[in-house]
Every structure is written in C-alpha cells, then in structure tokens.
Protein 1
Amino acid sequence: MIYLAVLAFGVTLGLPIAVIFASTAQGKATSTALEGIARQPEATSQIQTAMIIGLALIESLVIYSLLMFFLLMGKLPTTVSEVVELVKAEASVQTHDTEN
Amino acid sequence: MKIKKNSYISLLLVVSFFFVVVVRPLSAAGDSHRTWLKPISELPFLKGLQSDVWHQPDLVSNTYFVVLILIVFFSLVTRNLKRLPDSKRQTLLELFISGIINFFGDILGDHGKKYVWFPGSFFIFILSLNYLGLIPGLQAPTADLNTTLALGVTSLIGVHIIAIKENGVGGYLKHFIGDPWWLGPLMFPLHIVGELARAGSLAIRLFGNIFGEETVIFQLTVLASVLGLTILGIGFPFQIPMLFFGLFGGFLQAFVFSLLTTIYIVTFLEHGDDHHAEAHH
C-alpha cells in the first residue's frame, strides 16, 4: 500500500519539479541573450546560436526526467484487480510475519 | 499556381478528417501502432526485427523507406547541374547546401572545414526521419530509443575517428589526460565517462523530444475522435496545432544534434583557430 502511494507520488512529482527549475534557468538564459542582442544587434546570429545550444542542453535534462516518467508509468497498476492482488499479497506477508 | 481561398479550407477539412477517420482505426487496432509499411515488415527476413517496446514494430521498414526517398529525391534533383544556375531547382538546392556548409563550416574553422559533411548529413537524415512522423500512416523512426542510440553511437565513433586522424593516437590520448599531467589517473576515467555521457545525452534528447511529440499527437487524435464521435457525431481534428509544433521541434532537434556533434569535433581540433570568422567582418 505504501509502495503504491510512494510510487504514485514519484511518478507525478518527478517531472514537474524538473520543469520548475529548468524553466527558471531557460528564462535566465533567454533574457541574458536578449540583453546581449539589444546591446549589439550585429552579433545577433552568433548570440542566437549560442542561446539555442544552451536552451537545448537545459531542456535535455527535463527530457531525461520525462523518460523516467515513461519508465515508471509502466509499473503502475492499470486495473482494479491488480491493485487488489497487490494489497492481498501485502496483507498475507504481514499476517505471515505476525504469526512467527 | 493560384489556388482559390475556399479550396484551401476544403483541403484542410478533407486532410484533417482523413487523419481522424483513417489514422485512428489503423493505430487503435490492438496496442501496437502499425503503419502502411506493415507488409514490408512482415517479410520473412524482417519479421524477427519487430519489437513493440516503444510501439514501433515497423521501425526498420520506415527507416529504409526514408533512405530510399532521400536517394531518389537527391538523385532526381541533381540532374543537369550547370555552372551558372538558371533553373529554380538548382538555385534552391545551392541555397540549402551552401547554408549548411557555411553554418557548420564557420564553427569548425579553417582546419575543420573538410569535416563539414559529417554533421551535415546527420542534419539532413535526422530532419527527414523526424518529419516522417507527421505524414499520416507513417511513424518517425527516431521515436524509438534504438534508432537514436545508434545515431548517438555513430556520432561518438565519428568524432573520435576524426580526433585520431587530426591529432594522432598520442595527441588523442593526451587530450584525455588533461592539463596537469599528475592529475591524469583522475581525469582519464572522468573524460571517458564524459564522452559516453555525451553520446547518451544526444540519443536521449532526440528520443525524448520526438517520442513525446508523437505521443501527444496520438493522444490528441484519440481524444478528438472519441469526443467528436460521441458528442458531435463526427470527428474534429484537435491535433493540428501539435503537428505544426512537430514541424518546429523536429527541425530544432535535428539542428541541435548536428550542432553538438560539430562542437564535439571542435573540442578535439587542437589547432586553436583564433582567426574566427567574426574577426574578418
């Protein structure tokens, strides 16, 4: 039961936390790049290229988190009978322990 | 060619209903998402390669379909090239190819300009692979981790072969040891793991982006057809904005992959071209 609860928390909270920090970082990178372009418009294409590389590198960390989400999502039970089986298995393990 | 405005709208409606009416039955039959190249994947020597891990049993057929299309397209387009181009086809092609050469060549510098077609061909190939997913009835082969891992490993091996060619085996190994030679035993495994991490991150970045886009498009198509058919009685294409985002995202991911490959090549070119292109402006 606790396993299922913690698994559900892990699946749902992992990606949004990554997104919060990644979006802050990407906002900072973009704003600095725009300041640079405003200061020197003739360097626009180079600044733009460097900004795109930076954004893609930050975004790839979020994509790793998305990959973990897909992998964990496969481990969630999809039907009620699976959940019932898991709860029954845990209950039988607990009664077995208390008997000994 | 002038087309009247009304026929744009009717063409859009026809295409979108085709997406909803044809693509969903093709993909909703069971859990595996088949494409129109299914008869090719069912051939005896290809049947063992079907795997449903990322819902792409027709992966190999789609990839070789793209290779065939690229070969046919580029051999048709490069017929009868003249020194001074006077056909629209040749001008456009020269624009495209010279854009790639100038862009990657600027980063590689003078000494690296001869390697410009290694990341350049990655760009064209990955761009076509990504765009295949936007055609109804076909899937993007890069939405499968196998393809992107293969591309990442190829990029890694290519960069290291170029590094050995440029620096010799001694200089190549010296690059791994780092600047203070007495930190060598510490830096050597770190650099090796760093190189593997570069290949892995290239692969996972491309896979995550394209698989995510394709999943979103698929779920929106299912939502559109279920909502539409039960409530309105006819399907409505909700997934069309995501297809436009797929155009942008596919281009960006191909661009970032080849750009990072270029940068990894540059880190191995020790000649330190200080006269970059900017200084000549």
Protein 2
Amino acid sequence: MLGLNQGLYTVIAVPRRASWRGRVAGGAGAALLWAAAWGGASFLDHHVDLANQAMLFVIASVVASIWLSAPAAFAFALACMLSFNWGFVPPRGSLAVDLERHAVLLAAMLAVSWLIAGLVWRLRAQATAARDAARWAGRLQALGEALRDSAEPADQARPVSEALAELGGAPAALMLLHDELPPADSAEAVRVQGAIDADERAGLWLCLRQSQSFGPGTGRHTEQPAWYLPLRSRGGSHGAALVRLADPGSASEICRIRAQALCDLLGVALQRATLARQSEAAREMAQSQGVRNALLASISHDYRTPLAVILGAASSLQDQGERLSASQRAHLATQIVDEVRLLSRMTDNTLQLARLDAPGVTLRLDWESSEEIIGTALAHARRFDSDHRVRARLEPGLPLLRCDAMLLSQLLDNLVDNALKYSTGPVELVVRHQAALPGETSAAHVVIAVRDRGAGVAPADRRRVFEVFQRGHAAGAPGAARGVGVGLAVCRAIARAHGGELRLRPRAHGGTSFELWLPVVPPPAEAAE
Amino acid sequence: MMRVLLVEDDRELRTTLRDALALEGYDVSTAASLSEGLALWTHARSGPDLVVLDLGLPDGDGETLLAALRRRESTPVLVISARQADGQKIRLLDAGADDYLVKPFSVGELLARMRVALRHRGTALKPALTRYEADDLTVDLAAHRVDLRGEAVHLTPTEFKLLARLVRSAGQVVTHRQLLADVWGEEFTEHTHYLRLYMGQLRAKLEADPADPRRLLTEPGVGYRLAESA
C-alpha cells in the first residue's frame, strides 16, 4: 500500500503544471501577503514584542502555501523568515542574529512554516488523487457501459485505445482476435487498432499467447519502453494491448493496474460477444434441424393421405375400369386431379419453407401494386370458388409494395384457400394503409387481411397454427380439409422474409382475420408520360 | 396436320403428353434431351410448327435450343418449367419463348396454350395481330381506336402503346422486360414501377373492377397477359 501511495504522489497526483499566468498570479499573491505582513509588523513595531510580529510572517507563508507549489512555498517561508530577520530582529538592517535571544524564534518560525506548507501540500496531493480516481472510475464505468451495450465490442477499440494512450502518455495500440486463437500467428485472425511495427506485433502475439503482461514493473521484459497487456477473460485472452510509455523510467504501478483493468474490461466484453455468436450459431443449427424434422414429419403424414386417394382411384380405374359407369370413372378421375393439385400446393409450400429457412435466401424484390397482387389471388381463387364467396376491397391511393410477387401470391393463395376450406360464408380480401403502428416507432405498413366467418381458431391454437405441421382442432373433425400442415408456416416465413409479419386476429362477430403487415418502402419517382 | 416437337426427359410424362397430343390430331415427334431435340430440329426436312420445351433437361440449357430455333424461324416455343426454375423461365421468355406452363399442369391447360401460340405463329413474317375483340372491348390498332361497350375510350399515348403491345401477343404472357423495352425503350427495362402505374390506369379505364381484372391479367413475377380474345 505504501508503494502504491508513493506512486500515487509521484506520477498521478502531481497537480497539473501551472501556466505562467497562474505562476505570476501566485507570485503576486504571495508578494501581497508578504507586504501585508511587513506592513502589519511595522505598524505594531514597538507596541508588541518580536514573537507576535513573527507570527504575522508565519501566517503569510502558511496562507501562501495553499496555492504555491511545495518548493515555492518553502522558498517563500525562508524569504519571510529572512526578511523578518533583516527588518525587525535586532540588529536591524542586517541578517546577523543574536544567537542567545532570537535564534530559537527564527528557527521555530521557519520550522512551523515549512511543516505546515508540507502538510498543506500533502493534503492537496491527496485531494487531487481522489479527484483523479473519481474521474477515472467514471470513465471506466462509461466504457464498461459502452462495451456492455455494444453487440460488437471490437467497435469500442478506439475509445479504449485512447484511454490507454492517456495512461501511457503516448499512442497506444490494440490487437483483437476475431475468433479462436489460431495455431500460428496470422494477420487475418486479428484486427489491429493503431499503428504497430513488426517487433511490437511479435510482442503483442507473445503477450496474447502467454496471457501475461510484459514491460516496466511487470517483472518480465522490463527493458521494454512499453507495456504489453493481455485482454484477459476467464477463458483466456482475446487480444493484447500495447501501451507505449512517454517516460518508461517513471511509469507507475497504479497506471499499469488501471491499464490492465481497462484491458480486462475489453477482454470480458470480447468473450461475451464470442459466446453470443457461438450460441446464435448453435441455435440456428438446432432450428434448422427442427425445421427439417418438421418437414419430414409433414411429408410422411400429409402426403400419405392424398397419395392413398390417388392410388385408390387410379387402381380402381385400372382394375375395374370396364365395369364402372362413365360417371363413376369421371368421379375417380376428378378425385385424382383434385388430390394432385393439393399435393402440388403442398410440395410448393414445403419446398418454399425449406428455401426460406436456408441461410442467405434472396428474394426477387420488385415494385408491385396491391391491386395486381389481390387481382391475382382472386383469379386463382376463382378456380375453386364456384359460389363467388371471395370479395376484395382496397383502400384508394395505396403505395407500391417492395416485394417478391410470386412469394406474396403463394402466401395469399394459401390464406384464401384456408379461408374457403374452413368457413362457409363470404371471404374478404381487404387492403389498407396503416400510417404507423400504435405505440411503436416503426414505419408505415400496408396491411393485407384475409377475413372469414368460420369457426375461428381456439385461443390455445393461435400461436400453434403458424408452427410447421400444426392444424387447428377443427382439422381433426370429419370432413375437414387436409394438407395445410406447412401452409401457415410458409405464409409466416414469407411475411418475415419481407421484413413484415403475419398476424391472426379473431373477428368481433366470429371468424378469423389473417393480417399480413408489410413495411412501406419509399417508392421511386413516378414515370412521366 | 400440325407438327409438334416435344422435348421432355421424363419418359412417363413424355409418353402421356405425346398420346394426349396425338389424340388431338397433332403430329408429335419427341426428344429426351437437348441434343436429341437439336438433332431432330436440324435434320428434319421441314421444322415443326410448335416446340414444347422442358427446362429440366439432363444435358443443359434450354437457351441453346431456343437460340438455334430463333436463328431460322419464328417457330413458337412453349416452355414447361418446375416452380424452382423461375429465373430461367423468365430468361427464356425474354429471349423469345412464347409462353410457359408450370409443372404440374393439365392436358387442357397445355392444349389451350398451344392453340394461342399457334395462332400467333409467324407473326414476325405476316402482318401482326392488329385487332382484338373480347366481350364488349374492341381494340383496333390500325385505326388507333379503343371501344368499350360501344363508346370510345380515351387513352394516353403511353397507355395505348402498352395496350397495343399486349394486343399483339393476346393470350400470351409478355414479360416486364419486353413491355418496358417495347413501350419505354431498352434503357427502362428495370423501371417496373412505370408498368404498375400504367397498368393500374389501363385497368381503371378498361376493367369493371380493377381489383378483379378479367382482361389485363397479372402473371406474378413474370409479366402480363391480355386474356385470349373470344
């Protein structure tokens, strides 16, 4: 602790060097004090004894020590004593001292002045150190918060390196590992903040690999003109810092401790980011595994039923064809055609879901009009909607949508198909413009809703219906439609691939509204005639 | 008798389609690969009247065959594609294929597309289709006149050019790129938002319910199709 305190006084706590203006003002203040003491002593001359006059000069030197530096305060105290001796102590007008009568007085005067100047100096140094420590703590806290909030701590390398440069008094540099420690030193594996030469680079790699600090005061490679500090965390080092020292001879322990604390702060943040990346990768892998399993389950379950119908109808035609009536044959053929269309839709959905789930999927984005997208959905629906149950309603003045028309068409086909299957009443396609989401800071949206008056989705199922291979309870009922196992899942995947969302909302008087929320992108300038 | 060249690598589908087309009175020759199709095309004394071309062929790109066909004649080419081959399908349409069908399709759909394609056969040599009549809409390109329910409809020059381009390929898909190049110019082929705007205006003038069009049909992600005239 003692050594630490000494370091504190010698390096950190030296008050900032005063400007020449400050020095002149301090000197002038001291001169004024001296003049006041001299005046006071002259005024009291012959009224009081010499010891009382001496006190005036002691007070002057003590007060001046509040702002003067220690050597200046000591010199001022000496000057006060000497001038008092010269002006007031007999024989006056000389520095000669009557040893028997005044030597002790003058010595005590000087000793008290110096002692108090020393104490004041020490007090000031402690106050400065405390201020400095508080400032540093604030800075460390701010950096810690910045690192905590940053998804990519490597982006905070610059402020950390600036703080290190301040500690060392010369430009600092950082070397950060991108990921795992490579078996051999390689420039690709790290990111370097600040300029370093080949020796410094080698030193940083050594520091990183050994997770140990080098340089003055560390007990290792103390001849170096800089500190090499590892960016440590519990799992090892994630980089190393080079703190160049302006004056390696007087580098203090406290500075190095602070620099190491800063480096460790960055090291822990880097470790946290690495772990977050690894867990994200693991989560993605588990998710893609989950989707694959769900797709396999969907194929094995959903595909068997239409295949069974097709095989049944086709084999009946094959084996009994001649004995069947013309209308029976036509019925079987229609069954085959219908089931094949269903299988085709399911295949499209399953393939699309697998495609959208793959990393780096690209959409064929283009400017599309809501009117055309709805028109296409209506045209497709008309093939299965002999009763004209599907109606569309569009708000006027809708903006163009930035989307993949084929995907959006697939989404609406699925939703309309579902609505037709699971309800008997009218099905509405409603498109409206939503200026901004209430309570959120998001941009404007276009909302495309597919509304039916069916039995609705039970509250417990509202989240589940979007999962792969889930159907509402109604699906299990006799006569319910089959084969929508991946339908809603692919709809949601399509919505999300567009930066939008697919929501399910129960309607006030029964039925369901599936709402596709698509963010509005500012369209390009309109065409001139 | 109309001669059809069917290029399809799947044996079952090839046989089924051949039989179905033969039943409709077409003279069908089949090829299982691009090279075979190309050989049939080059060595035949007179080319087919129509080519039905599958995209998923074992020996490469349908574009090679299309290029070879286009070098000699304007024989209509009907592209059959799986849904995953969207990009290639549009490239072929842009390169001059006449229409497309996505697998699986019914024989009825194939026959309907073939009829339209054959009707347009040779449009590059013969005078192009200049008149379109469907229900209560009449478009006379030569007279520059559009009538709806017996009354003249005023179209802006761009709207008319757009409609005229669709009329010339009535019943067939016209890609975004083709429309933009023919109506606005080659440098505008990426400006699909022009198309959305003017198609919207055309629908407002020519459709009873623009949100449920019966004439100016959208082929999502591909282009537009003017419903086949009655």
